[in-house]
Design a protein that fits this description.
Elements: E1 2-3, H1 6-10, E2 17-21, H2 23-28, H3 30-41, H4 47-58, E3 65-70, E4 81-89, H5 95-107, H6 111-117, E5 121-129, H7 138-147, E6 154-160, H8 168-175, E7 179-185, E8 194-200, H9 221-224
Parallel strand pairs: 5-6
Antiparallel strand pairs: 1-2, 2-3, 3-4, 4-5, 6-8, 7-8
Helix pairs in contact: 3-4
């Protein structure tokens, strides 16, 4: 288990410290990570039992990477996990990829543009911060650390629709430059509407592209809109 940066290690006694989770460490902390997920999403207890096999399988996928945050040390030195994020490289055989591709088609994206967008991306699969640790831009720190150095040209994610985009997750993604790919999309087996968001990589602290002048479907919000 390694801290993400020396700077994070220096403030470890005063606030959450980011750590890179190896596959072995993630398996060891899987129950703890799923508890963060359930608390952050407001799901009923027991949900983690259904998600555990999928999270464990995701560890085996190419390009998997995970970053967590540990709370300040308690009286006995224990540092519980208070945030978790992980990602992996998207691929055509994956269920999420197939669902998003179908959603883009139904939303009016041309075959050429959707395939170009899905040809080289990392899926931001999970990003969760425990309620007691929210409000300190910990999600932003996780996102920046997780996507630092990724070689893919873009990052895609899905998040539940919220009226007025009025929650911490939406504000984070908009602040970091994510734009609409598909809105009000229903994944198979889920009645909730989701938004699929994306942006080009690399990611910067201000959420803006670090390079300019390259042709990309993520360059502007206008270019993200499907052809109709």
């Amino acid at each position: 288990m390694n801290t993400v940066s020396d700077a994070a290690e220096q403030v470890s006694d005063h606030g959450p410290v980011l750590i890179e989770l190896s596959p072995q460490e993630m398996r060891r902390r899987l129950t703890e990570a799923l508890s963060v997920y359930v608390a952050a999403m407001g799901y009923p207890r027991g949900t983690e039992l259904h998600r555990a096999p999928m999270w464990a399988e995701h560890i085996l996928r190419p390009g998997w990477r995970a970053v967590g945050a540990l709370a300040p040390a308690g009286d006995e030195g224990h540092r519980p996990l208070v945030a978790i994020a992980y990602c992996y490289r998207g691929a055509p055989h994956q269920w999420w990829h197939q669902q998003v591709r179908d959603g883009m088609r139904r939303a009016g994206w041309s075959h050429e543009r959707s395939e170009a967008m899905l040809a080289d991306y990392v899926e931001l699969t999970e990003l969760h911060v425990s309620p007691e640790a929210q409000g300190h831009r910990l999600g932003e720190r996780l996102l920046l650390a997780l996507l630092d150095g990724r070689r893919e040209s873009a990052v895609l994610l899905s998040t539940p629709e919220v009226a007025g985009e009025d929650n911490r997750a939406w504000r984070l993604y908009r602040r970091m430059g994510f734009v609409d790919v598909v809105r009000r999309f229903h994944f198979a087996g889920d009645s909730r509407p989701f938004a699929v968001l994306g942006r080009e990589l690399p990611l910067t602290e201000r959420g803006l592209p670090s390079t300019e002048g390259t042709a990309s479907p993520f360059t502007t919000t206008t270019e993200m809109r499907p052809t109709t």
